[in-house]
Amino acid sequence: MDFLTALDIGASGLSAERTHLNIISMNLANAKTTRTPEGGAYRRRTVVKATTDVDSPFAKAMQDAQTRELKGVRVLGIARDERPGKRVFEPGHPDADQEGYVTYPDINVVEEMTNMLTATRSYEANVSSMQSVKSMWNKALEIGR
């Protein structure tokens, strides 16, 4: 694996984790949103990730079998959670139904914070790997002098 491939793998991880952190932030910001433009309460969103090749088809054809299995990560899409919302009895709320219940999004703040910590650690690991590659690159350049 060359230095640029290692940086591409780290960059794909950074991009995916940034998207994951944005979605978690959006879920936390809308934890109490009872009215959306689509109608009803906000629906929790999750990020769907998948492995992806980091090389172009030409570079892939030129590599040997040992380095061909290098994969990065990419975001396939944003999925809406279809869990039903939490119904809370609040007859004075403007979004209450005829029985006096308000439907809130089913967002567990502890779960979202745990996901945020995991995504942050993953982001930091990708940054650390990229810094290591950069350090190795600089050392290789010093050897060549």
What can you see in these coordinates?
This protein is an alpha+beta fold. It contains three helices and four strands; from the N terminus they run αβαβββα. The longest helix is centred in the C-terminal third of the chain and has 36 residues, at 109-144.
Q: Would you report the number of β strands?
A: 4
Element order: H for helix, E for strand: HEHEEEH
Shape: elongated
Strand order in the sheet with the most strands = 1-2
Low-confidence stretches: none
Sheet of most strands: 2 strands, antiparallel
Beginning-to-end CA distance, first to last residue: 23 Å
- Overall pLDDT, averaged? 88
Amount of helix: 40-55%
**What is the CA-based Rg, rounded?**
22 Å
| Broad structural category | alpha+beta
Q: Give the quaternary arrangement of the chains.
A: single chain
Binned strand content: 15-25%
Q: Please work out how many helical segments DSSP would assign.
A: 3
